[in-house]
Amino acid sequence: MKSYKVLGWFLGFLLAFLFALPALASEVVQAPVYKDDVCWWFRIEEKEFVNVRSYLLHGEYGQCHKGGKVKLFLREKGTKIEITPAPPLLMNLLPETAVADLKMLVLPLKEGGEWPVEYRSERGGWVSGKSKVGSIKNVKVPAGTFRAYEIERSEWTSGRNPVELRSTYFYCQECGRIIKYSYKRMLRGEIEATKEVELIEVEKTER
User: Fold this and answer.
1) pLDDT digits (tens, 9 = 90+) for 95-128
2) Which of 199, 191, 204 is nearest to 43 (CA)?
3) SS3 state of residue 3
4) What is the C-alpha separation between 195 and 180, in angstroms, rounded?
5) Rounded distance, CA 109 to CA 136, Å?
């Protein structure tokens, strides 16, 4: 009689586990549910060494969540200035934007996973390449240390003089965003431009 009770308990546990699997899997695929009244602040440094442009990002920029929406800000001397339109670099740190045309993320992430990349650049030409997911690492940024997937990305532009684009970035599932990003654009081995982004602060704002 005792053995039947043990068997019944085991079968019940097994069925509950199997029914829970779809829910567990979907949590990985779905975009995170953002908490309101929180601002994620990044230090962004864009540099051009060939054609200097006036709209390069330089300074502290925030993704602030309020009422289920995201607003972007520049912070200068403690003052927040809302940014419109949204800079693509800042928006691409969020999963729902990062999985769009540029395919910076393809969820669910897993170590060793990779995917092809193809899109039209700002200059009109085509860019192609691939992204590959490395292991989960403890990533130290000014805001703290977070566990995040390392992703390496290699791309090339079309045309007679193809430009090489290389980037490494870290996606933190707990944070629900990319927390560190490093990018180089190179022509014939010479660096033409760089981008550096890192999370510097998680700020809880007043309701």
Assistant:
1) 878 877 788 999 889 999 999 999 988 777 899 9
2) 199
3) helix
4) 11
5) 10
Quick: pLDDT tens for 141-188. Answer: 999 999 999 999 999 998 888 999 999 999 998 899 999 999 999 998
Q: Residue 169 has which token pair?
A: 């970035």
The contacts found for 138-142 with CB under 8 angstroms, 24 or more apart, are: 139/170, 139/172, 139/179, 139/180, 141/179, 141/180, 141/198, 141/199, 141/200, 142/43, 142/198, 142/199, 142/200, 142/201
Q: What whole-number distance in Å separates Cα of residue 151 and Cα of residue 113?
A: 10
- The DSSP 8-state label assigned to residue 30 in this structure reads S
First-to-last alpha carbon distance for the chain, in angstroms, is 59
What is the spatial distance between Cα 42 and Cα 27, in angstroms, rounded to a whole number? 26
- Report the C-alpha gap between 202 and 134 in whole angstroms: 25
